[in-house]
Amino acid sequence: ISYTEVGVLNGDTNTMVTDKTEHVLESLLPGRNYSISVQAVSNSVESNAEIAYQATRPSSPVIEDLKPIEYGLNISWKSDVNSRQEKYEVIHLRNDSGKYQNILLPFLSGKERSLILSMITTSDRYRTEEESRWYKLPPVKRTVTEAEVVDLTPGEKYTIQVNTVSFNVESARPLVLNHTVRPNPVTDIAPLVDSTNVTLEFPRPEGRIEYYIINWSPLESNGEEIVQRTRNMTGKGTEGGSVRALVEDLMPGVKYQFDIRTVSYELQSDVTTLSARTMPLILSEILVVNNAHLTDTVTLRYTPTPQASSRFDRYRFSLIGAGDASGKGALIKEKGANETESKVTFNNLTPGRLYNITVWTVADRVLSQPLHRQDRLYPEHITKINATQITDTAITLTWDKPPGEYNAFEVQYLNTEGILIQNLTQEETITINELKPHRNYTFTVVVRSGMEATILRKSLPISAVFITQESIPGKVG
Fold first, then answer.
1. Which residues lie below 8 Å from residue 307, measured CB to CB, with a gap of 6+?
2. How many CA within 13 A on the CB side of residue 443?
3. 374 strand-pairing partners
4. Owning domain of residue 172
């Protein structure tokens, strides 16, 4: 038996002898075509040769790389250097349909490539503008044309990718779009008003906020042109915390409308609108007028507050007893802002009582800062003095109890030396001693209410003349 590789010049011929009718040829090279000659031999005489041609199976290629590309795979492989082959056959089988296909490629030196088409599904993912980490959504079937992205942060800008996927391999060119979620609006605004500014306090909305846009304009023109003003305020602050926006240089007593929007990536939220009136000013001077002849009446005179300095509708006056902690007994009177008579009178008051007086200007239902005054009415005088007992050196006086409030009675008289003597008593009677016999004495009783530290008022004086008795003969004075 002899064999040699076909097509190789000066190739080696290998010969072997066997007494059997079959033989295994070994150490052949893969992918080669061999010429095999078999002769019968008897007594060293060879018969004519029977020649056959047989090719050995080439070595299997080694796949080096499988790289997904758009609509297919990039396959790279290499072959055994000792193996020869004329072409490559690439076979692929679809897992979903079982469809079989093979592709024949001519032999080329180096690496070979083949494209295998596969079934396509979709893959979606997203990330924020400022983050590098992607958030993946569950894949959807190829028949589904939409996917819902939930739990996005308000005011955040997202980059969203939509990609096709086959057997966990994504395409190289996903569709990309940018989407900004509308920022949350401002809610639960509490206006804190002053005369020339309003502070808008509200909880910081959830999500991303770059800044706030605040617009405001007066709702009452008063014949003037209405001009809308604007300011921007940074949106820094922790979620759940409180935000304060100060709007300044407002007109006292004017009602304003405020519009607030949040902004993120130039996208504005819904507008939140509220109205608030600034506190009016009171620039008046108050003069309390009362006298001893009108013990139950007090008159308040005031200078007008200029309308150019503040808008308001009316003045409000409150009168309440200093000891009335509940405030239920307050007396209220109002005067129009344009009334020419700049005074208000309270009647039927309690004589001798200390009153707290408060004055405001009022714009709609918004009060100015109060002006506080305190004054006491004059107490009511007594009506008559009686002498219940008279001796040569003493006189006991009594009088009626006056209406209203008082602290004490002041009893005055001149002694024989012309010196004014004053006595205080809290009772409606007093005994004056150390008088001279058979003398005329003029006694005056004044009702006192309050003390020097808390405004002292004295009533009109009431007087009476009494004569002491003659002295008993022989009595030592």
1. 337
2. 29
3. 356
4. 121-180
